[in-house]
Amino acid sequence: MLDLLEKSMENCPVSEINGYNYFIHPITDGLPVVEPELLEEVMDAVIHIANLDCDYILTAQSMGFPLATALSLKTRLPYKYIRKRSYGLEHEVSINQTTGYSSSDMFINFVKKGDRVLLIDDVLSTGGTLKAIVKALQVMDVEIVDIVMVFEKVGIRKELEREIGMEIKTLLKLEMDGKNIKIVGKGV
User: Fold this and answer.
1) The whole model's pTM is what?
2) CA distances in angstroms from 126 to 51, 103, 159, 175, listed in the order given
3) How far apart are CA 113 and CA 97, in angstroms?
4) Is 39 exposed, middle or buried (0-12, 13-18, 19+ CB in 10 A)?
């Protein structure tokens, strides 16, 4: 399981953005191309480890979009997006996310107290986006039944889990040394 995902990391380019090494991959960036077999393998692995007893799937803009969509098609669960644009709707919640290479506002709409959600996203790197989303949902009294990330850059997960008070499940653990990427294990 995850043979295609592991193979897809072999020639993965790395780009430096504001002093931060960012790997470019079909799942994290849609580049060079997302093969359906790779996305299907990833979704099968997510389904295998995720708690799907939720009202809907929730993800952040933008690379969570194809993951939530594919997971929805496979599980028949609906999904919602957290956007980087304000719609100015009633009860809209604004959060600030800071990553290794940027800072921006995100907006939560149509998520309400008592909702039970599965969070999914592409990569756990600095934890900035995930931490901001989880804290906002906790304040909103939304129940996060599970958090699943495809990739985990090792070194942040345990500390972040303590901060948010939740387990984070991942599929593939990566270690980056400059522009070199090494798979160091499978997640969960």
Assistant:
1) 0.94
2) 24, 12, 11, 13
3) 21
4) buried
Domain containing 156 equals 3-86+93-186
Site of tokens 């804290």: 135
Tokens 């993965």, residue located: 12
Dihedral (CA of 140, 84, 124, 54) sign: positive
Q: How many domains does the chain have?
A: 1
Question: CB 16: neighbour CB atoms within 10 A?
Answer: 11
The closest alpha carbon to 152, from 141, 144, 164, 160, belongs to 160
Distance (Å, whole) CA 148 – CA 128: 15
Grouping H, G, I as helix, E, B as strand and the rest as coil, residue 148 is strand
- Has residue 96 got a pLDDT over 90? no
Tell me which H or E stretch contains 147.
strand 143-153
| CATH code of the domain containing 60 | 3.40.50.2020
Helix (H, G, I), strand (E, B) or coil at 65: helix
For 42-78, write each residue's pLDDT tens digit. 999 999 999 999 999 999 988 899 999 999 999 999 9
Question: Which is nearest to 74 in space by CA: 17, 118, 16, 21?
Answer: 118
